[in-house]
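Notes to self after the Tuesday call (sharing in case useful).
The group wants a holo model before anyone commits to mutagenesis around the pocket. I volunteered. Ligand is magnesium ion. Logging inputs and output together so the record is complete.
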Amino acid sequence: MNTTVHVLYENPDWNPPLVAGLEAQGFNVELHFLDGGLIDPSTEPAEGLWLNRVSPSSHTRDHSSTVPLAREVLFWLEHHGRRVINGSHAFELEMSKLRQDLLLRRHGLNTPKTVLAVGTANLVAAARTFDGPFITKHNQGGKGLGIELFNSADQLETYLNDGAFDPGPDGKIILQQYIQAPEPFITRVEIVGGRFLFAMRSRTDEGFQLCPSDACQVPASNPDVCPADPSSASKFAPSPLTADDPLVQKLVAMCVAEGIEVAGIEFIVDAEGNRYVYDINGTTNYSGVLAEQTGVHGMHELAKYLRTTVVPKLAVA
Ligand SMILES: Nc1ncnc2c1ncn2[C@@H]1O[C@H](COP(=O)(O)OP(=O)(O)O)[C@@H](O)[C@H]1O
Ligand SMILES: [Mg+2]
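Result:
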């Protein structure tokens, strides 16, 4: 019988490349929109594979119930022994930049100095522990949420007192050492099923929102611009990074050890050539324009991994 892939999602704009990749591998696809919903614990989830595509930025699309509901759905699926790609453990990591920092350091990766703070007084106290410039981020991030650059604790204090600060979905704020990159790009390493797919460079000179999905490239001021237009995606370029790079090897080992089956992981390089890793995206998206250039289509690679590696083990489970 043909396997069904059940996709838990919140942003429909990110589904088409995924569905195309899954269908190309002959899967039935069932899309499950997670915002409102109900779970009866006495019922069994449908058979098949479950793929979690719920993003930490869901609340910014008016879906503030998505992340809390996803937590319960994932627990229910795993309780019943369903095979979930990027299940609870990967999901909780994606929802917390603090946890990402802990994990990255445990796996021997260099990260920028990072502190989590809740409440105005603690934010200022945390800021006083930084020597140079630092940035703030929402602990539950995505899309560059809550990212502001400060040169001093006093500057942050003034900003907080002005009331302009956005405390994010739950008040948990990350303060992080600002890494001054001499070249205006970050690198994103794409890993699926313990395999390095490719790395790309994202230009940072237009701000902190670096989602690679073609659907995210439409300028808000002109929604008629075609997202597949190469000029709208020129923010992204292939990176020369290869699978045998020691940093890539550490990232792959971390993903395997932690059961993160799909990830786009970002790092930035300072003037001395030090590489700092700061973001693990489980709900990663791939630039279609870049895929046309390189011939590597991320969602097709993900679907192939499911077909060749995950499904055979499902059958014998
Ligand atoms: N420590 C840092 N130093 C310099 N720039 C950073 C740092 N952290 C993040 N940035 C910039 O902000 C962008 C968004 O930050 P990130 O942590 O990836 O948040 P999100 O989860 O919202 O994508 C990054 O891609 C990078 O361009
Ligand atoms: Mg990021």
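Two things stood out.
The first strand starts at residue 4 and ends at 9.
The domain at 4-93 is CATH 3.40.50.20 (Rossmann fold).
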